[in-house]
């Protein structure tokens, strides 16, 4: 079976950068057609620059980067420089990207690509706020036909939120977009905080990554060494590795398990804005609309990450 076509929608972002490198390290499995950027961790101009910097570091300037929405559908933009640094890539040596942005808006690229794709063909990997995906689905609901699945990092059920007590950042930034996507009818797999907090980048794991012996290993170890913010907050022996869970799931789904459930997103203004309300015990009659991952083999995940990153330059 040939490599699976994927589009990575992203707001790099330290963990986004690791996820992009992870995906590019397995070209025989994942055919990264493009990156589409969205405002999130840092504003759009920076996420769009950072995406191209990461591609340069991976030796893949051929992958097109389409800039998308500069802010959420309804709410004002909330960013996370306190986590990812002012640049959005704390720990990465920055340079002017070697390539220009691809011509055209990311939403138009998503619509055109999915309309031209065979049925159930393209996997959308959503690593940031879901604004681009929602805008595409609102403008062209027919594109669902071309989507094989949407695998997204976001939400929380068994864990508290990380941007408010109730909400995870990607969902909180654009809850209206998240609600559109989760109710689109496309096949959806969610990698929430319940999953990413099981894969902590401990010092021993960072050392193993740094010892891979290539540029990619050094780069990822440097990013993780500058990503201690969450570990301090959580008082854990390492920070959760959020976005790479999406790629790990695509490469080795057997490391992950969960349940098909109904998920709704709170879009009303108040303490629970952006909360993912997961009907885990099926106490409502709302139909299941997502596979919610709540278990990860952490050691298996890091072995996969390390052996895959080792294949980059
Ligand atoms: O809550 C974690 C998510 O928010 C990750 O995607 C991180 O990059 C930020 O976008
Ligand atoms: Ca992200």
Under CATH, the topology can be stated as: Inosine-uridine Nucleoside N-ribohydrolase, Chain A
> Based on helices, strands and strand pairing, what is the structural class?
alpha/beta
Strand order of the largest sheet: 3-2-1-4-5-6-12-9
Instruction: Give the domain tally.
Output: 1
Helicity, as a percent range: 25-40%
**Which ligands are bound?**
alpha-D-ribofuranose, calcium ion
Q: Shape, please?
A: globular
Largest sheet: 8 strands, mixed
The share of residues in extended strands comes to 15-25%
Could you state the order of secondary-structure elements as H and E?
EHEHEHHEHEHHEHEHHHEHEEEEH
Q: How many distinct beta strands?
A: 12
The CATH class designation is Alpha Beta
CATH superfamily: Ribonucleoside hydrolase-like
Mean pLDDT: 96
Low-confidence region ranges: none
Query: How far is it from the N-terminal to the C-terminal residue, by CA?
Result: 25 Å
Question: What would CATH call the architecture?
Answer: Alpha-Beta Complex
Can you describe what's shown?
The chain is of the alpha/beta class and 313 residues long. It has a single domain, classed as Ribonucleoside hydrolase-like (Inosine-uridine Nucleoside N-ribohydrolase, Chain A, Alpha-Beta Complex), CATH 3.90.245.10. The chain has an 8-stranded mixed β-sheet with strand order 3-2-1-4-5-6-12-9, sandwiched between helices. The protein has a two-stranded antiparallel ribbon with strand order 7-8. The protein is globular, with a radius of gyration of 18 Å. The two termini are 25 Å apart. The mean pLDDT is 96.
């Amino acid at each position: 079976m040939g490599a699976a076509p994927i589009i990575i929608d992203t707001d790099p972002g330290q963990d986004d950068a690791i996820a992009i490198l992870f995906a590019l390290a397995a070209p025989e499995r994942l055919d990264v057609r493009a990156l589409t950027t969205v405002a999130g961790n840092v504003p759009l101009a920076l996420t769009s620059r950072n995406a191209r910097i990461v591609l340069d570091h991976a030796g893949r300037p051929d992958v097109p980067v389409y800039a998308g929405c500069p802010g959420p559908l309804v709410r004002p933009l909330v960013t996370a420089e306190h986590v990812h640094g002012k640049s959005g890539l704390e720990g990465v040596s920055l340079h002017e990207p070697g390539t220009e942005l691809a011509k055209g808006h990311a939403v138009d690229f998503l619509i055109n690509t999915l309309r031209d794709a065979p049925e159930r063909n393209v996997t959308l990997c959503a690593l940031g706020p879901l604004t681009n995906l929602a805008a595409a689905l609102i403008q062209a609901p027919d594109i669902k036909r071309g989507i094989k699945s949407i695998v997204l990092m976001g939400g929380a059920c068994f864990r508290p939120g990380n941007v408010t007590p109730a909400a995870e950042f990607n969902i909180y930034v654009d809850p209206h977009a998240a609600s559109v996507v989760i109710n689109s009818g496309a096949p959806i797999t969610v990698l929430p905080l319940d999953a990413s907090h099981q894969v902590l980048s401990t010092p021993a794991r960072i050392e193993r990554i740094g010892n891979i012996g290539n540029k990619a290993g050094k780069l990822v170890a440097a990013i993780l060494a500058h990503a201690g913010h969450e570990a301090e907050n959580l008082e854990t022996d390492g920070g959760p590795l959020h976005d790479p869970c999406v790629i790990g799931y695509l490469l080795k789904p057997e490391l992950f398990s969960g349940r098909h459930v109904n998920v709704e997103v709170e879009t009303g203004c108040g303490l629970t804005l952006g909360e993912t309300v997961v009907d885990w015990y099926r106490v409502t009659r709302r139909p299941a609309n997502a596979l919610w991952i709540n278990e990860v083999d952490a050691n298996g995940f890091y072995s996969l990450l390390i052996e895959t990153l080792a294949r980059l330059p």
